[in-house]
Amino acid sequence: MTDKVTNKVRTPDTTVTQTPRQRRWLRLLLADKVSLVAAVVIVLIILAAILAPLLAPYSPSDQDLNSILSGPSGAHLLGTDDLGRDLLSRLIYGARVSLEASVIAVGVGLLIGVPVGLAAGYFGRWIDAILMRIVDTLLAFPALVLAIGVGAALGRGLVQAMIAVGIVFAPILARLVRGQVLTLRKRLFIEVATTYGTSTGRMIRRHVIPNVMRPVIVQATFLLAIGLLAEASLSFLGLGVQPPTASWGTMLQSSFQFITVAPSQIFAPGIAIAITVLSFNLLGDFLNDVLDPNTPLRPRRKRRRA
Protein backbone atom coordinates (compact mmCIF):
# COMPACT_ATOMS: atom_id res chain seq x y z
CA MET A 1 0.00 0.00 0.00
CA THR A 2 2.87 2.35 0.84
CA ASP A 3 4.56 1.69 -2.51
CA LYS A 4 1.42 2.73 -4.38
CA VAL A 5 1.19 6.04 -2.54
CA THR A 6 4.81 7.18 -2.68
CA ASN A 7 5.98 5.36 -5.84
CA LYS A 8 9.15 4.07 -4.18
CA VAL A 9 11.89 2.99 -6.53
CA ARG A 10 13.73 0.13 -4.85
CA THR A 11 17.37 -0.72 -5.47
CA PRO A 12 19.44 -3.49 -3.87
CA ASP A 13 21.02 -1.10 -1.34
CA THR A 14 18.81 1.98 -1.02
CA THR A 15 15.22 3.11 -1.37
CA VAL A 16 14.59 6.40 -3.17
CA THR A 17 11.16 7.93 -2.67
CA GLN A 18 9.77 9.90 -5.59
CA THR A 19 6.33 11.46 -5.64
CA PRO A 20 4.54 12.14 -8.93
CA ARG A 21 5.00 15.88 -8.46
CA GLN A 22 8.76 15.47 -7.92
CA ARG A 23 9.15 13.51 -11.14
CA ARG A 24 6.75 15.40 -13.34
CA TRP A 25 9.18 18.20 -14.27
CA LEU A 26 11.44 15.70 -16.02
CA ARG A 27 8.53 14.12 -17.89
CA LEU A 28 7.24 17.53 -18.93
CA LEU A 29 10.69 18.67 -20.04
CA LEU A 30 11.29 15.57 -22.13
CA ALA A 31 7.81 15.82 -23.63
CA ASP A 32 8.07 19.54 -24.38
CA LYS A 33 10.76 19.64 -27.07
CA VAL A 34 10.78 23.43 -27.28
CA SER A 35 11.46 23.82 -23.55
CA LEU A 36 14.06 21.06 -23.73
CA VAL A 37 15.92 22.85 -26.52
CA ALA A 38 15.73 26.12 -24.56
CA ALA A 39 17.17 24.47 -21.46
CA VAL A 40 19.99 22.89 -23.48
CA VAL A 41 20.81 26.24 -25.10
CA ILE A 42 21.01 27.97 -21.71
CA VAL A 43 23.22 25.22 -20.30
CA LEU A 44 25.54 25.43 -23.31
CA ILE A 45 25.80 29.22 -23.03
CA ILE A 46 26.57 28.97 -19.31
CA LEU A 47 29.23 26.32 -19.97
CA ALA A 48 30.74 28.45 -22.73
CA ALA A 49 30.90 31.40 -20.34
CA ILE A 50 32.56 29.33 -17.62
CA LEU A 51 35.00 27.64 -20.00
CA ALA A 52 35.74 30.78 -22.02
CA PRO A 53 39.53 30.61 -21.49
CA LEU A 54 39.53 27.06 -22.89
CA LEU A 55 37.06 27.55 -25.74
CA ALA A 56 38.06 30.96 -27.10
CA PRO A 57 40.78 30.72 -29.78
CA TYR A 58 42.24 34.09 -28.77
CA SER A 59 42.23 36.50 -25.89
CA PRO A 60 39.38 39.01 -26.27
CA SER A 61 41.91 41.86 -26.24
CA ASP A 62 44.41 40.40 -28.75
CA GLN A 63 44.70 42.53 -31.88
CA ASP A 64 45.57 41.48 -35.41
CA LEU A 65 46.31 44.75 -37.21
CA ASN A 66 46.57 42.91 -40.52
CA SER A 67 42.95 41.73 -40.28
CA ILE A 68 40.91 44.78 -39.33
CA LEU A 69 37.18 44.48 -40.09
CA SER A 70 37.82 41.22 -41.92
CA GLY A 71 35.10 38.71 -42.69
CA PRO A 72 34.92 35.08 -41.57
CA SER A 73 38.05 33.08 -42.34
CA GLY A 74 39.99 30.07 -41.15
CA ALA A 75 41.95 32.17 -38.67
CA HIS A 76 38.90 34.12 -37.47
CA LEU A 77 35.68 32.13 -37.82
CA LEU A 78 33.40 35.14 -37.27
CA GLY A 79 35.82 37.77 -38.52
CA THR A 80 37.43 40.65 -36.63
CA ASP A 81 36.32 44.05 -35.37
CA ASP A 82 37.70 47.52 -36.07
CA LEU A 83 40.73 46.85 -33.85
CA GLY A 84 41.47 43.42 -35.32
CA ARG A 85 40.10 41.50 -32.33
CA ASP A 86 38.60 38.08 -32.93
CA LEU A 87 34.80 38.29 -32.80
CA LEU A 88 34.28 34.66 -31.77
CA SER A 89 36.57 35.08 -28.76
CA ARG A 90 34.85 38.29 -27.74
CA LEU A 91 31.45 36.65 -28.19
CA ILE A 92 32.41 33.79 -25.85
CA TYR A 93 33.95 36.06 -23.23
CA GLY A 94 31.06 38.47 -23.68
CA ALA A 95 28.63 35.73 -22.65
CA ARG A 96 30.34 35.61 -19.26
CA VAL A 97 30.01 39.36 -18.70
CA SER A 98 26.44 39.61 -20.00
CA LEU A 99 25.19 36.67 -17.91
CA GLU A 100 27.00 38.01 -14.85
CA ALA A 101 25.36 41.38 -15.38
CA SER A 102 21.91 39.82 -15.67
CA VAL A 103 22.40 37.75 -12.51
CA ILE A 104 23.55 40.81 -10.57
CA ALA A 105 20.50 42.78 -11.68
CA VAL A 106 18.05 40.03 -10.73
CA GLY A 107 19.86 39.45 -7.43
CA VAL A 108 19.58 43.12 -6.49
CA GLY A 109 15.91 43.10 -7.47
CA LEU A 110 15.25 40.06 -5.29
CA LEU A 111 17.14 41.46 -2.30
CA ILE A 112 15.07 44.64 -2.40
CA GLY A 113 11.74 43.54 -3.84
CA VAL A 114 11.03 40.36 -1.87
CA PRO A 115 11.44 41.88 1.64
CA VAL A 116 9.41 44.94 0.61
CA GLY A 117 6.61 42.75 -0.75
CA LEU A 118 6.64 40.54 2.35
CA ALA A 119 6.44 43.51 4.70
CA ALA A 120 3.70 45.25 2.73
CA GLY A 121 1.56 42.16 2.31
CA TYR A 122 1.97 40.66 5.78
CA PHE A 123 1.82 43.72 8.03
CA GLY A 124 -0.52 45.82 5.88
CA ARG A 125 -1.99 49.09 7.15
CA TRP A 126 0.36 52.10 7.07
CA ILE A 127 3.39 49.97 6.18
CA ASP A 128 1.59 48.66 3.12
CA ALA A 129 0.38 52.15 2.19
CA ILE A 130 3.84 53.75 2.36
CA LEU A 131 5.72 50.94 0.61
CA MET A 132 3.18 50.58 -2.17
CA ARG A 133 3.17 54.33 -2.86
CA ILE A 134 6.93 54.11 -3.36
CA VAL A 135 6.47 51.07 -5.61
CA ASP A 136 3.77 52.81 -7.64
CA THR A 137 6.01 55.84 -8.07
CA LEU A 138 8.87 53.72 -9.42
CA LEU A 139 6.55 51.79 -11.72
CA ALA A 140 5.23 55.05 -13.15
CA PHE A 141 8.57 55.69 -14.86
CA PRO A 142 9.47 53.84 -18.08
CA ALA A 143 11.89 51.07 -17.13
CA LEU A 144 14.71 52.13 -19.45
CA VAL A 145 14.41 55.80 -18.47
CA LEU A 146 14.53 54.89 -14.77
CA ALA A 147 17.54 52.60 -15.33
CA ILE A 148 19.37 55.33 -17.25
CA GLY A 149 18.61 57.90 -14.55
CA VAL A 150 19.75 55.69 -11.67
CA GLY A 151 22.75 54.49 -13.66
CA ALA A 152 23.81 58.06 -14.41
CA ALA A 153 23.56 58.87 -10.69
CA LEU A 154 25.64 55.85 -9.67
CA GLY A 155 28.26 56.28 -12.39
CA ARG A 156 29.46 54.23 -15.31
CA GLY A 157 30.43 50.58 -14.96
CA LEU A 158 28.98 47.09 -14.99
CA VAL A 159 28.09 46.85 -11.30
CA GLN A 160 26.60 50.34 -11.16
CA ALA A 161 24.49 49.73 -14.26
CA MET A 162 23.18 46.41 -12.98
CA ILE A 163 22.35 47.87 -9.57
CA ALA A 164 20.30 50.44 -11.47
CA VAL A 165 18.52 47.68 -13.38
CA GLY A 166 17.98 45.78 -10.12
CA ILE A 167 16.28 48.84 -8.65
CA VAL A 168 13.98 48.80 -11.69
CA PHE A 169 13.21 45.11 -11.08
CA ALA A 170 12.55 45.57 -7.35
CA PRO A 171 9.05 47.15 -7.56
CA ILE A 172 7.94 44.45 -10.03
CA LEU A 173 8.94 41.71 -7.59
CA ALA A 174 7.58 43.63 -4.60
CA ARG A 175 4.12 43.91 -6.14
CA LEU A 176 4.17 40.22 -7.09
CA VAL A 177 5.18 39.09 -3.59
CA ARG A 178 2.67 41.40 -1.92
CA GLY A 179 -0.17 39.94 -3.98
CA GLN A 180 0.87 36.40 -3.07
CA VAL A 181 1.12 37.25 0.63
CA LEU A 182 -2.31 38.89 0.66
CA THR A 183 -3.75 35.70 -0.82
CA LEU A 184 -1.91 33.52 1.70
CA ARG A 185 -3.19 35.52 4.67
CA LYS A 186 -6.70 34.28 3.87
CA ARG A 187 -5.66 30.61 3.82
CA LEU A 188 -6.82 28.35 6.63
CA PHE A 189 -3.36 27.11 7.66
CA ILE A 190 -2.20 30.71 8.21
CA GLU A 191 -5.21 31.43 10.41
CA VAL A 192 -4.62 28.23 12.39
CA ALA A 193 -0.93 29.05 12.89
CA THR A 194 -1.87 32.54 14.05
CA THR A 195 -4.43 31.12 16.48
CA TYR A 196 -1.77 28.89 18.03
CA GLY A 197 0.46 31.90 18.66
CA THR A 198 3.12 31.32 16.02
CA SER A 199 5.61 34.20 16.06
CA THR A 200 5.79 36.58 13.13
CA GLY A 201 9.32 35.56 12.19
CA ARG A 202 8.51 31.86 12.25
CA MET A 203 5.29 32.44 10.33
CA ILE A 204 7.13 34.25 7.54
CA ARG A 205 10.00 31.74 7.39
CA ARG A 206 7.99 28.53 7.62
CA HIS A 207 4.71 29.35 5.91
CA VAL A 208 4.87 32.54 3.86
CA ILE A 209 8.23 32.51 2.07
CA PRO A 210 8.03 28.87 0.81
CA ASN A 211 4.60 29.55 -0.69
CA VAL A 212 5.53 32.78 -2.47
CA MET A 213 8.78 31.51 -3.99
CA ARG A 214 7.13 29.62 -6.87
CA PRO A 215 5.95 32.70 -8.76
CA VAL A 216 9.10 34.56 -7.73
CA ILE A 217 11.30 31.89 -9.36
CA VAL A 218 9.27 32.09 -12.55
CA GLN A 219 9.39 35.89 -12.59
CA ALA A 220 13.14 35.85 -11.90
CA THR A 221 13.66 33.65 -14.96
CA PHE A 222 11.86 36.17 -17.14
CA LEU A 223 13.83 39.00 -15.53
CA LEU A 224 17.10 37.27 -16.46
CA ALA A 225 16.10 37.74 -20.08
CA ILE A 226 15.20 41.38 -19.49
CA GLY A 227 18.50 41.84 -17.65
CA LEU A 228 20.40 40.73 -20.74
CA LEU A 229 18.52 43.27 -22.83
CA ALA A 230 19.11 45.95 -20.21
CA GLU A 231 22.86 45.27 -20.17
CA ALA A 232 22.99 45.47 -23.95
CA SER A 233 20.96 48.70 -23.98
CA LEU A 234 22.97 50.47 -21.28
CA SER A 235 26.30 49.31 -22.72
CA PHE A 236 25.18 50.46 -26.15
CA LEU A 237 24.46 53.90 -24.67
CA GLY A 238 27.82 53.96 -22.88
CA LEU A 239 26.39 53.59 -19.35
CA GLY A 240 27.08 49.89 -18.83
CA VAL A 241 30.16 47.80 -19.52
CA GLN A 242 33.03 50.00 -20.64
CA PRO A 243 35.47 49.17 -23.47
CA PRO A 244 37.70 47.28 -23.90
CA THR A 245 35.79 44.75 -21.76
CA ALA A 246 33.93 42.32 -24.00
CA SER A 247 30.19 42.03 -23.56
CA TRP A 248 27.40 41.52 -26.03
CA GLY A 249 26.30 45.11 -25.46
CA THR A 250 29.73 46.62 -26.15
CA MET A 251 30.04 44.41 -29.23
CA LEU A 252 26.78 45.85 -30.53
CA GLN A 253 28.00 49.35 -29.83
CA SER A 254 31.33 48.94 -31.63
CA SER A 255 29.87 47.05 -34.59
CA PHE A 256 27.05 49.56 -35.07
CA GLN A 257 29.59 52.27 -35.85
CA PHE A 258 30.77 50.25 -38.87
CA ILE A 259 27.43 48.81 -39.95
CA THR A 260 27.78 50.27 -43.45
CA VAL A 261 31.34 48.97 -43.88
CA ALA A 262 31.03 45.55 -42.20
CA PRO A 263 27.32 44.83 -41.58
CA SER A 264 27.95 41.17 -40.73
CA GLN A 265 29.68 42.12 -37.45
CA ILE A 266 26.44 43.10 -35.78
CA PHE A 267 24.85 39.71 -36.45
CA ALA A 268 26.88 37.65 -33.93
CA PRO A 269 26.06 39.60 -30.74
CA GLY A 270 22.54 40.36 -31.97
CA ILE A 271 21.72 36.72 -32.65
CA ALA A 272 23.35 35.64 -29.36
CA ILE A 273 21.18 38.07 -27.39
CA ALA A 274 18.02 37.07 -29.27
CA ILE A 275 18.57 33.33 -28.77
CA THR A 276 19.45 33.69 -25.09
CA VAL A 277 16.48 35.95 -24.33
CA LEU A 278 14.12 33.61 -26.17
CA SER A 279 15.52 30.59 -24.31
CA PHE A 280 15.04 32.23 -20.91
CA ASN A 281 11.46 33.16 -21.81
CA LEU A 282 10.67 29.62 -22.94
CA LEU A 283 12.27 28.21 -19.79
CA GLY A 284 10.19 30.62 -17.72
CA ASP A 285 7.01 29.33 -19.37
CA PHE A 286 8.08 25.78 -18.61
CA LEU A 287 8.83 26.57 -14.95
CA ASN A 288 5.48 28.30 -14.67
CA ASP A 289 3.77 25.05 -15.68
CA VAL A 290 5.95 22.82 -13.50
CA LEU A 291 5.79 24.92 -10.33
CA ASP A 292 2.06 25.60 -10.63
CA PRO A 293 0.31 23.11 -8.31
CA ASN A 294 -2.81 23.28 -10.50
CA THR A 295 -0.98 22.05 -13.59
CA PRO A 296 -1.90 18.44 -14.51
CA LEU A 297 0.79 15.82 -13.97
CA ARG A 298 0.58 14.65 -17.58
CA PRO A 299 2.70 16.30 -20.26
CA ARG A 300 1.06 18.97 -22.33
CA ARG A 301 -0.46 17.69 -25.54
CA LYS A 302 0.61 19.17 -28.81
CA ARG A 303 -1.88 21.48 -30.39
CA ARG A 304 -3.63 20.06 -33.39
CA ARG A 305 -3.13 21.87 -36.60
CA ALA A 306 -6.21 23.50 -38.02
TrEMBL record:
<dbReference type="Pfam" id="PF12911">
    <property type="entry name" value="OppC_N"/>
</dbReference>
<feature type="transmembrane region" description="Helical">
    <location>
        <begin position="130"/>
        <end position="152"/>
    </location>
</feature>
<feature type="transmembrane region" description="Helical">
    <location>
        <begin position="34"/>
        <end position="56"/>
    </location>
</feature>
<dbReference type="Pfam" id="PF00528">
    <property type="entry name" value="BPD_transp_1"/>
</dbReference>
<dbReference type="GO" id="GO:0005886">
    <property type="term" value="C:plasma membrane"/>
</dbReference>
<protein>
    <submittedName>
        <fullName>Peptide/nickel transport system permease protein</fullName>
    </submittedName>
</protein>
<dbReference type="InterPro" id="IPR035906">
    <property type="entry name" value="MetI-like_sf"/>
</dbReference>
<feature type="transmembrane region" description="Helical">
    <location>
        <begin position="256"/>
        <end position="278"/>
    </location>
</feature>
<keyword id="KW-0813">Transport</keyword>
<keyword id="KW-1003">Cell membrane</keyword>
<keyword id="KW-0812">Transmembrane</keyword>
<keyword id="KW-1133">Transmembrane helix</keyword>
<keyword id="KW-0472">Membrane</keyword>
<dbReference type="GO" id="GO:0055085">
    <property type="term" value="P:transmembrane transport"/>
</dbReference>
<feature type="domain" description="ABC transmembrane type-1">
    <location>
        <begin position="95"/>
        <end position="284"/>
    </location>
</feature>
<feature type="transmembrane region" description="Helical">
    <location>
        <begin position="212"/>
        <end position="236"/>
    </location>
</feature>
<feature type="transmembrane region" description="Helical">
    <location>
        <begin position="101"/>
        <end position="123"/>
    </location>
</feature>
<dbReference type="InterPro" id="IPR025966">
    <property type="entry name" value="OppC_N"/>
</dbReference>
<dbReference type="InterPro" id="IPR000515">
    <property type="entry name" value="MetI-like"/>
</dbReference>
<comment type="similarity">
    <text>Belongs to the binding-protein-dependent transport system permease family.</text>
</comment>
<dbReference type="InterPro" id="IPR050366">
    <property type="entry name" value="BP-dependent_transpt_permease"/>
</dbReference>
<feature type="transmembrane region" description="Helical">
    <location>
        <begin position="158"/>
        <end position="177"/>
    </location>
</feature>
